[in-house]
Write a structure and sequence with these properties.
By secondary structure, the chain is of the alpha+beta class. The protein has four helices and eight strands, in the order E-H-H-E-E-E-E-E-E-E-H-H. Strands 1-2-8-4-5 form a five-stranded antiparallel β-sheet, with no helix packed on it. A three-stranded antiparallel β-sheet has the order 3-7-6, with no helix packed on it.
């Protein structure tokens, strides 16, 4: 098994610029690029296989490769639209069958087919819609914290990221 590879990145932002500015209480356009960068950094910190949440926030497509057909665990939860191909001598052939099984241990895909060198499973994933408001709040809070604490060292005392952010992340984190 290889680590998941991002095939198609999300096309939508987690938090819009107007919502970020409202949260930050900013009513001018002078720092829009910084606010965009802070939102993107907060999302990067949380999102995807390497993000601290261990899951995709907005809809995106990932793939994983395995040495053979069989039952394989997907490293990102909330999978849908799963497809699989077997690759033999550089030629791709679709799987004969695909069965998705999700439980508390994760999402598993059983794939069957002919002779292969590699099996590539591609899937879409995104956070359930009902959980999106919590992640949006975490992104806003992280961006606000980083906006107020821009330097690694200053003469004033720095604070850690807000405990509420850790609480939100903890409730949504997937432990694989």
């Amino acid at each position: 098994m290889t680590p998941p590879v991002l095939v198609t990145a999300p096309s939508a932002r987690v938090v819009s610029l107007p919502d970020m500015k409202l949260h930050l209480r900013i009513d001018h356009d002078d720092e829009d690029s910084m606010i965009d960068a802070l939102e993107a950094a907060a999302v990067a910190y949380l999102d995807g296989w390497r993000g601290v949440m261990g899951r995709a926030i907005m809809p995106q497509t990932w793939s994983q490769e395995f040495d053979e057909w069989g039952t394989h665990k997907l490293l990102l939860p909330d999978a849908s639209n799963v497809s699989a191909v077997g690759i033999l001598d550089g030629v791709e052939a679709p799987a004969d069958s695909i069965t998705i099984k999700a439980n508390l241990g994760g999402t598993f895909v059983e794939v069957k087919g002919g002779a292969v060198d590699t099996v590539r499973i591609t899937y879409e994933c995104a956070l359930p819609v009902k959980q999106l408001p919590a992640v949006q709040m975490a992104v806003k809070m992280l961006a606000a914290h980083w906006y107020e604490n821009r330097e690694a060292a200053t003469e004033r005392a720095l604070s850690a990221a807000p405990m509420a952010v850790q609480s939100i992340i903890g409730s949504l984190r997937v432990w694989m």
